[in-house]
Every structure is written in C-alpha cells, then in structure tokens.
C-alpha cells in the first residue's frame, strides 16, 4: 500500500535520524494511512479509500459527499 492519502494528498517526508554520537542517516516519515470503507449516498455505493488520520477527521468534519465530489473534480480515481 502506498503511503499517500487520497483525500489530502499527504506523502512521506524525508529527513535524518540522528544518533547519540550525532551520526546522521536518512529516514522516511510516513503519514498514518489506513484503508477505510465509506458509504457515499450521492454515488449509491461504498468506496474504499486510503486516508490519513487527518483525512479521516476531514471527512468527519466536511462530510463524505463533499470530499468525494472534490476528489472526482480533481480526477482522483475512486
């Protein structure tokens, strides 16, 4: 599963792990993405989305219909 949120477009960030001796090694900060299944009344079916924790809160706040309409407008495959 890719570490990309379908709602917000959140992608991994990159940086360094710094040890006690201050040696820097490259690391990756993945967003907290989860597979969620939502009922979308406007489409009349369930959709399965890969969303981050913040994306779940966005759906709760704005509603699944509004979020899915925005995703379809920008060409996101659902």
From TrEMBL:
GO molecular function: structural constituent of ribosome
Presence of keyword Cell membrane: no
InterPro entries xref list: Ribosomal_bL28, Ribosomal_bL28/bL31-like_sf, Ribosomal_bL28_bact-type, Ribosomal_bL28_sf
Keywords for this protein: Ribonucleoprotein, Ribosomal protein
One GO term (biological process): translation
GO terms for cellular component: ribonucleoprotein complex; ribosome
Keyword Oxidoreductase in annotation: no
UniProt cross-references to HAMAP family, sorted A to Z: Ribosomal_bL28 (MF_00373)
PANTHER family linked: 39S RIBOSOMAL PROTEIN L28, MITOCHONDRIAL (PTHR13528), LARGE RIBOSOMAL SUBUNIT PROTEIN BL28M (PTHR13528:SF2)
Family to which this protein belongs: Belongs to the bacterial ribosomal protein bL28 family.
UniProt name for this protein: Large ribosomal subunit protein bL28
Species this protein is from: Cellulomonas carbonis T26
Lineage of producing organism: Bacteria, Bacillati, Actinomycetota, Actinomycetes, Micrococcales
Gene name in the database record: rpmB
